[in-house]
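We modelled the chain as a single entity of 725 amino acids. Its sequence is:
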Amino acid sequence: MIGPDQQPLELWGGTECTVVRVGDEYRDQVRETGHRTRLGDLDALAELGVTTVRYPILWETIAPESPHELDFSWHDERLARLRELGIRVIGGLVHHGSGPRYTQLLDDRFPEKLRDYAGRVARRYPWIDMWTPVNEPLTTARFSCLYGHWFPHLRDEGQMYRALANQCVGTLEAMAAIREVNPAAQLLVTEDIGRAFGTPELAAQVEYENVRRWLSLDLLCGRLRPGHELHDRVQPHVPQELLDGLATGRGKPDIIGVNHYLTSERYLDHRIERYPHVEAGSNGAQTYVDLEAIRVHRLRREVGPEKRLQEVWDRYRLPMAVTEVHHGCTREEQVRWLQDVWTAATTVRGRGADIRAVTLWSVFGAVDWRSLLTERNGSYDVGAYDTRGSKPRPTMLARAAADLAAGRRLDHPVLKVPGWWKRPGRHYMRPNFHTLSPSAARSARPILITGATGTLGQAFHRICSHRGLPHVVTSRDELDIVDDASIRTAIKHHRPWAVINAAGFVRTWEAAERAEECHAANALGPERLASACRSAGVPLVTFSSDLVFDGSLGRSYTEGDAPAPRCTYGLSKLECEQRVLAVLPEALVIRTSAFFGPWDKFNFLYTAVRDLKQGREVVASQDNIVSPTYVPDLVHATLDLLLDRETGVWHLTNQGAVSWYDLAQDVADRARLSGKQIRVSNGSGRTDTSLSSHKGLLLRPLDQALRDFIEQSPALQSLLAQHID
């Protein structure tokens, strides 16, 4: 055994590869994330410094219709490329799946069929020396047979035990077949080992769940014998010959893979009235809610990856790896989580545990995991690479992972602030709206944001506070963007690591009459900011508009289309782009369109709803096509691009193009108001200034944003609740 003090902690990687059956439909994450069509993804893994990759050779994809009809063509090409790159492969055979249609988790012959498949795969790829025949067998058994999320959609504890035993015996049999080909092949068993906590009234349920969390590993290690806490509970539901085979311990893993998420640790609370927005569950005798333990204040020192890794080591004393690190959140939180897990693994190694690696999971993202794949919303969580453009784009997380792999310390101002799971305001029943402590805010260099009184500046302030991003929002008195001395003074005083320009002339209908003022605010000011940022060595973000286009193209504009403004406002924004990028080519210029948001009343949608509610006529054009943009989505995406160090011109609008008339009709319908008072304005010729992007459609579809606008705007909800005589 190689001791942890004899080699550095390695960076492993993994592509989200679940193939799961929901009803009669199979979902394949390799297809949904686009990895199936991108051979170049493997080179991207190598660029990160990944030494080993968990890679799918999944049963459902190679032999979907018959165990005798196997198609290895896709895998042959990928696995050969991984060998060329010198990346070690951990072969996965079943990943949260139930197998092809000719078997399932409760099939008596599931282990036998999996053994046959494993042998065929091993003969095809005899050089692969580490395998995970079944990923997270206990988690899969629970989600499929206890909670009913996945096929066979049962809610039966006994069937869960049977499904788990089948997967564990299948693992044992699969490794036997693999070792007939490669006697040195190693078994890596992955599992989520989250701990449960709870109120005293639920002590028995908590104790049961804390014993159950070890069940897959206990079965494979031969520990489920008479005297084990769960032996008598499991034994009636599982054929004795299966239990006897597992009791030999022949399935003991060579390495234990710990998959740990912020949601892995749970808190059970019988006081369901305290959580009116959380669906309650039951064990048949008690009703309770199942919550994230990370949000319970008194557990703040009892949760986290360090505690769980230490428990696994103390229980089994087997080599370990953290085999999934993923956080479907904003960029800085993804990096904060990776840093926390890496630090935890390093700390536990320092106490003598044999921890080999930390695995960057979902390197190319994941789709619809927020619903456990039970809904098709197209909800994409970015990984180390963002795959929504023409090619995978490395993010802040990719750079952080590469630094860790190379032995470099992570160093970025946003890492001076802890992740949301450690900040005030995260706890149930302890309301605290200060998401950043004063000391944290003082210790980190801020983002400097101009335009404190505007819609965009206020939105950046609100969202930076929520995301734990230290920032300063300045008014014109504090930072006048057309005054060089004012800019230099503000930058020297605040020492920002980045500047976001949310100031400018926004009254498009007055731009022609006040052309000089518009030009100064929208073109000269950003240029002066760019010059100051160049001198200070900090990045700049500034905003442009869809009105740099004349609307005559006949389709949505992308970043490569030539601007041709036909109004004073559009001319000022095009000049902004040209001046800023000439001075600071590394600047990030965001073209966007037609703001609407939940925190102000100064937008077309609120005005339309207000007028309809009050019985007034709404006049809107059916000829002008635009891309309405939900301000929270715009701000989040802009911050992510800034953290990713993106530069140049980007189009950020919600996906969809619509006329002002149709938009008014849509929002009226969503607000349950009659659209009869919406009148088409006199046309002056069709124009389409809607925006799309070849760099990546980063904002969600417009209909989802409109839904949130209606539901989450306090001003709009208050307006709709009013009784109008």
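As a brief sanity check on the tokenised model: The chain is about 35% helix and 15% strand. The two ends are 81 Å apart (CA to CA).
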